[in-house]
Every structure is written in structure tokens, then in C-alpha cells.
Structure to design on (247 residues):
């Protein structure tokens, strides 16, 4: 076994806030005496941007783009290879001040309420009701609510919740908008009982969500889609914008 280098951070979840001290140890494992010319620690923060194919000069969606890394380098002599070890950690934004006001939403989905439907007359009859406890959400708490299929001519195949991150970037020359599905969970499988309340419960994924952000040149927003798939392959989708906050 040769010489091994490792970084151990004291905080198990590797989550820090601005102003907090990141502490731990660098562990060097070797059976023999180790000679080196210095050990250095570097903290790096990076944001990956991709050029938009839609408009020259406009940056579009950064997928899981902000990354914080602690890097340890051991410089050794010419006859021995330098050693490097990296450790990724997470930085949370500061909690927002004030009290978050809940914004419950009741919804009803019928063929008449659907948008962007070309042949509405061909749709089977259905009535779906439900509610979301709040579209103003604390990012560390789940999105909750319930859904009830009151009636449906066609059999239900599946009911899903789709969480979407919408990123908008741009400048005076134009804007690029990109929507990315970051989580999809099934809340019902098969032809559900009519009139039976189905719980809505979605935990926001830590690595793919952040507080809703809006600036002059870019925005990071979130939406949830309630998706009902019928056995005749009709797809019913209802969209709800969300505002995520860290309290």
C-alpha cells in the first residue's frame, strides 16, 4: 500500500451557512516515512454555464451548477507523484427574515379546464378535485395536499407528481428559458377508487432545489405538475408555480 491522502470534515452532512467555520482533519496514511514539500488546502467555488443554442451570446440553464470543493494537495519530490484529494460540501443561503404566509390552492380538473387541447370533444369525461396546503413552501419541509378522482369514464393508469426547475437567463439581446424535471414520484398506481382522497407528499431534493431566486438577468423558479395518465393514453396535466424559501 502506498501513501493515501484523505479529508474528513467534522460535520457529517457537509452543510454550512455563510460565516460558519468549516473544520476537520487531513489524514495521511502510509506504512513508511512520508517526505513532502508542503501540504496546502484550497477552497473552490465554481458555476458551470452553457452557451445557449437558441440565441448567440445568451447563457442558458445551469444544471446543478454551483459547486463548492475543498482540495488538499501534497507536493512531493520529483521521484514521487504529488497527491491530491477533494471533498465536496454544501453551502446554504441565509434564512429569510419574516414569517412565510401560507397560500393554499384548491383545484378542479375537467376537460373544460385543460389548456392547449386541440380535440377537446374526444377526451373522456372526468372530474378531479384536490388541494395543495401551500404553494409558498419552506424548502426543508414537504409539499403536502390531497387529490380525489371523483369520476372518470376511462380507467386511471397512474397519477404522478413532477417537480420542475425553470431557469431563465439573458440580457438586453434576449432571454433563454429552460425547464428541467428534477423529481418525479408516483402517488397512485392503477384505477384508483372514486371519491378516495389520495395524499400528496413530496420532499424537495436537497441537491437540485434552492430558494426561488429572481434578479435582473436571471431567475430560478420551481413548478409542480399533477400528471394523470389514463389507460387510453390520454395525459392530463395541471401546473402549479411554487415559491421556495429557506426559513
Amino acid at each position: 500500500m502506498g501513501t493515501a491522502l484523505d479529508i474528513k470534515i467534522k460535520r457529517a452532512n457537509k452543510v454550512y451557512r455563510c460565516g460558519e467555520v468549516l473544520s476537520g482533519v487531513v489524514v495521511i496514511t502510509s506504512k513508511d516515512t512520508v517526505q513532502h514539500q508542503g501540504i496546502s488546502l484550497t477552497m473552490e467555488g465554481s458555476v458551470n454555464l452553457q452557451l445557449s443554442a437558441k440565441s448567440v451570446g445568451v447563457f442558458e440553464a445551469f444544471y446543478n451548477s454551483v459547486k463548492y470543493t475543498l482540495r488538499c494537495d501534497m507536493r512531493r519530490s520529483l521521484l514521487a507523484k504529488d497527491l491530491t484529494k477533494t471533498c465536496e460540501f454544501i453551502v446554504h443561503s441565509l434564512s429569510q427574515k419574516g414569517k412565510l404566509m401560507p397560500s393554499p390552492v384548491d383545484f378542479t380538473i375537467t376537460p373544460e379546464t385543460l389548456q392547449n387541447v386541440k380535440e377537446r370533444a374526444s377526451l373522456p369525461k372526468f372530474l378531479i378535485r384536490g388541494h395543495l396546503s401551500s404553494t409558498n413552501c419552506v424548502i426543508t419541509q414537504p409539499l403536502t395536499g390531497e387529490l380525489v378522482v371523483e369520476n372518470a369514464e376511462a380507467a386511471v393508469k397512474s397519477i404522478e407528481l413532477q417537480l420542475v426547475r425553470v431557469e431563465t437567463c439573458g440580457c438586453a439581446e434576449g432571454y433563454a428559458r429552460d425547464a428541467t424535471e428534477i423529481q418525479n414520484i408516483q402517488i397512485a398506481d392503477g384505477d384508483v377508487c372514486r371519491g378516495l382522497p389520495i395524499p400528496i407528499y413530496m420532499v424537495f431534493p436537497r441537491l437540485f432545489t434552492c430558494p426561488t431566486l429572481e434578479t435582473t438577468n436571471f431567475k430560478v423558479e420551481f413548478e409542480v405538475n399533477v400528471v394523470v395518465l389514463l389507460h387510453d393514453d390520454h395525459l392530463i396535466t395541471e401546473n402549479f408555480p411554487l415559491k421556495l424559501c429557506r426559513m
